[in-house]
Amino acid sequence: MRLSSSLTGASGLLLTLAGCPTPIVAAPATTTDGSSSSTSEGGEGPTTDATPTTGPSEEPTTGEPEEVFAGVIASAVRTYRPRDAAEVVVTRDPLLDHASMAIVAVGQTYPALFSEEKARLEFAGVPEAVYQLRTRRPAEPELPDAPGQQLVFVAQARKLGNYAGIFAGRPDVAATGEAATGLTLSVGDLAPLGPEDQFELYSHDADALMLQFPVLDAEDTSGSPQLGATEIDAWTIAWRPDTGRGGWPLVDATKGDDLWLGHLVAGPLVAAPTGAELQDPWSFAQRYVLAEAAELSLPAMLPGATTAATGSFAPVASEVVSVDFRASEFMAELQIYDADLKSVGCSVAAVLEPGTEHPITGMTPNLGGFNVYGLDAPTDPACMGEDCATMFVTPGDRVLELEFGDRKIDGTPTLVVQCTRYVFVKDPGGGGVYDYVAADLSVQGRLDELTQAPIVPKLGLVRDLAVNGTAVAPDASLAGVGVNPTISFKPPKFGAPDVYTITIRTIDDIEGIDGPILRRSLGSIRTEFTEVTIPDGFLEPGGHYYVQVTAERGRGISEAHADSHDIWRSRAMTGVLTP
User: Fold this and answer.
1) Fewer beta carbons within 10 angstroms: which end of the chain, N or C?
2) How far is Cα 150 from Cα 537, in angstroms, rounded to an integer?
3) Cβ within 8 Å of residue 459, ≥6 positions away
4) Category of 438 on φ-ψ map: left (φ > 0), alpha (ψ -120 to 50) or beta
5) Overall pTM surpassing 0.70 (yes/no)
6) Per-residue model confidence as pLDDT tens digits over 447-480
């Protein structure tokens, strides 16, 4: 289960609208913001580019008293579930997946040692006190010259599950970070391409998912299909999937991997708004549905190579379910730090969650949904043109008839409802490009269960969010916070979070392999406490940052995956901070 990439934008299929940031399409449930993905925000995703060794599904029992280990242990047992093969239980040394890892407690550092015999990591000698498990990931393939994200767990638990769990796909997927890796798609029987349609590539077995926008430009040289096209003829794209693996997974059909191309047919919810409809954001909402899919044939992908993939689309049957979406309650909670909402967006997304009896970590393809943004509406609906007075209107309550594609394959149709607040900030480098900071609320659950009642937020934003004791509103800034500021807050007024994640993001530009990146996560701190001090390695003098505090129900600090399909999240934000 994965919360996209990030939850920087609304989940599902999103368009860029005037006055709104370009959102990142996210499959629900478990990636760190701005990264290619992981199991949970601030969590540790599996990396399996090396062949693991077979291990026990649980520690052996001998009838003797349970061992008392003087320190902290973390299971290294993982269960993988390929699509059409028996599940595989493996042990993998988590140290292979990190650039560094150690526990810091009471001023001392305790290194991690891997015990293959006991299928676990051991941090010997850690006292029974609050400690920090500090890890750093390898550099991301998009940013080879920047250090990987730093992930810190502040806990007291003696047994952790960060590196164990149940995952979709096979365990020995190879991965690459080479920018030249790509696909050339040749796919027939395409339903005529519309102006808002998009495509989605996904592999269950390689745990890879990538949304792909057609380039609607007659001068395009990539081979992208154009409006009205009924086939894809040699369209070459860069391979940049989201994943829970390290790097970009390479699909290998010789090992049983699948690769699908879904066609998401999109269009307006209201065809031609008139009169009072011009003052309703829902009149400009977008709806989309997985209308057809093609299973692709291709040789094994190789690092740095462009692989030809072929297939034909076949229609996907669809179903319709009613969703009573109480958007006004989301809007009310999103404005607790500042009543002046200036840019908001909501999504209602149906996705296919891997796992049936319980959720497991893996890619989640889109099945259908809606996207709506706040609207600068004319105060007089009869007024036309740029000189009309306007007012900002947030999305209101709406009963939606949600159509979603049903591919009749294993998994759980899951509904993810999310509303996001955006606050635009100036480029600290002096450029003309505005960036944004974001806060959001999301509710996730089984589609057939969550739609039985009105959809409302179930976990509020944390209260009294402060930096070094000073509140920093989303549209404010605070200088001189130092490189180790203290972040404090109070629990939400409703809902009972299991854990908090403090994500540190920068709005300073950095050059990536595909061009400049304006906004990214530097890492996170995951804890059950309501006050933490940001350790070294996150903030630097002269930098520009902001902090998001995520409250989460359905996932604990020592869990490897959620115990339930029901996941509630809220994410508050500070304004821009400078050390």
Assistant:
1) C
2) 8
3) 441, 492, 494, 495, 496, 497, 551, 552, 553, 568, 569, 570
4) beta
5) yes
6) 999 999 999 999 999 999 999 999 999 989 999 9
